[in-house]
């Protein structure tokens, strides 16, 4: 059974940083890529970043240059380092792989 669990969200001031983590159980990073998406209040869930099983990364235009995705295969954990956060980054952040998604972690950027 595949389980994904995000953590690391919270309240941060504009310009601040957070690092999200997602621990995966029941799937191997050697077989699947991992994705981060987010859903702001009243909006649809949108893709923001992917890291493939071959460690190729990609980012949406809204986060490129500010966010960095990485993974630790030994810990079966994927990370999202978020810098220079803006109020528009406020959302619930989800990690996903192979059609599975975690429950999400709330990120609020506000002064």
Based on CA atoms alone, the radius of gyration comes out at 13 Å
Strand fraction: over 45%
Number of strands: 11
Helical content class: under 10%
On the 0 to 100 scale, the average pLDDT is 96
The largest sheet, given as strand count, sense and whether it forms a barrel, is:
7 strands, mixed
Helices and strands: which structural class? mainly beta
**What are the segments in which pLDDT stays under 50 over at least 5 consecutive residues?**
none
Total number of helical segments?
A: 0
In whole angstroms, how far apart are the ends?
40 Å
Name the overall outline: globular
Give the H and E element order.
EEEEEEEEEEE
Polypeptide structure, described:
The protein is mainly beta and 111 residues long. The protein contains no helices and 11 strands. Strands 2, 4, 5, 6, 9, 10 and 11 form a 7-stranded mixed sheet that branches. A 4-stranded antiparallel sheet has the order 1-3-8-7, with no helix packed on it. A hairpin with a 6-residue loop joins strand 4 and strand 5. The radius of gyration is 13 Å and the shape is globular. It starts with a strand and ends with a strand. The mean pLDDT is 96.
Output the keywords.
111 residues; mainly beta; 4-stranded antiparallel sheet; 0% helix; globular
Quickly describe the structure:
Helices cover 0% and strands 51% of the residues.
Layout of strands and helices, then pairs:
Elements: E1 3-7, E2 10-12, E3 18-25, E4 34-39, E5 46-51, E6 57-59, E7 67-72, E8 77-82, E9 91-97, E10 100-101, E11 105-109
Parallel strand pairs: 2-11
Antiparallel strand pairs: 1-3, 3-8, 4-5, 4-9, 5-6, 7-8, 9-10, 9-11
